[in-house]
Hints:
By secondary structure, the protein is of the alpha/beta class. It folds into 2 domains: 6-173, Phosphoglycerate kinase, N-terminal domain (Rossmann fold); 186-380, 3-Layer(aba) Sandwich (Rossmann fold). The chain has 15 helices and 15 strands. Helix 8 links the parallel strand 7 (190-194) and strand 8. The longest helix has 15 residues, at 170-184. The N and C termini lie close together (9 Å).
Amino acid sequence: MNKIGIDEVPVLGKRIFVRVDFNVPMDDNQNITDDTRIRAALPTITHLVKGGAKVILASHLGRPKGKANPKFSLAPIAKRLGELLNKEVMMAQDCIGPELKTQINKMANGQIILLENVRFYEEEEKNNPEFAKEMAELAEIYVNDAFGTAHRAHASTEGIAKYIPAYAGFLMKKEVDIMGKALANPARPFVAIIGGAKVSDKIQVIENLLNKVDILIIGGGMANTFLKAQDIQVGKSLVEAEKVELAKELLLKAEKGGVKLMLPSDVVVAKEFSANAASRVIKVSKIEADDLALDIGPESAEHFAQAINSAETVIWNGPMGVFEIDAFAKGTERIAKAMAECQGTTIVGGGDSVAAVEKMGVVESLTHISTGGGASLEFLEGKILPGVAALQDK
């Protein structure tokens, strides 16, 4: 994963095409409701502006399905980026074409232009070579700073790198370096916490991590399937019946590999899935036939927290319960707190886990928060990400 960063390349006077991830949430009036992803790209953009490059930014937004749609225009993002940089950001009417080429050729060093949504063309997601080549002709250098889309082989994330030299932006390099080191050469003990609803979503992550970690903690809805694999009755709780045998195999694999696999010993249950439902804490052996397990219990949370505090490297992906409902958020909140207290390298990936640490206000205490949901998962699965593979090696 040893990629050349854009900070290692002369940029003065160069036209540089930067693939960013500006796929930000917006309300019905196209007001940006969370600009985290825009802020995440600022170090690369600032470096290029200060270095005297002509900065050409490209991103997708939403799912316009290959058709131009004003609802998915990047114009509000150009405005917000300009405010954050305190500098004019020009907004292009398209992402290819002769008029755009003329406009870019007139740019002065240090100027910025944001191209219109690359997904207004169906050729983007199809990784059409001609479309990729047309984008490449706008620039002399390609930079990928969009880790969140690096698991997709699209024209602007992978195809374009076949035509002009391709390097990693600051955010991309940080993601790949920190997560890459954690997986390839972690300081030990190495602890992974995997949560979320379903085992099926994270089978490959669990299998890959079982070859690497010292302790694997499993919480959230998926823990029920593992409890069931140990012949513990989980009532009406979410269980993937067809994955129980797989859970048995994974438990056996952990045992044979000397990995400590930790499951909840107590849970917070309710009779119905509702914010107003009466809840109680019980041992997993006491779950009743009409109970729903909706969070890990305080005893489990403390055991998990102790394991996290003993770690030199921790990766967390997925909540411990239905953390959107306060009554079932305490397990996830305790994990977030333990991550903040841990003295080792702490990495959080996946939308729900990121939302949890933001809700708890512990973001500043963590080593790294991954911006890429699906990309983070595939990275943890040990897959080669096309957007990363396309960049030049040292």
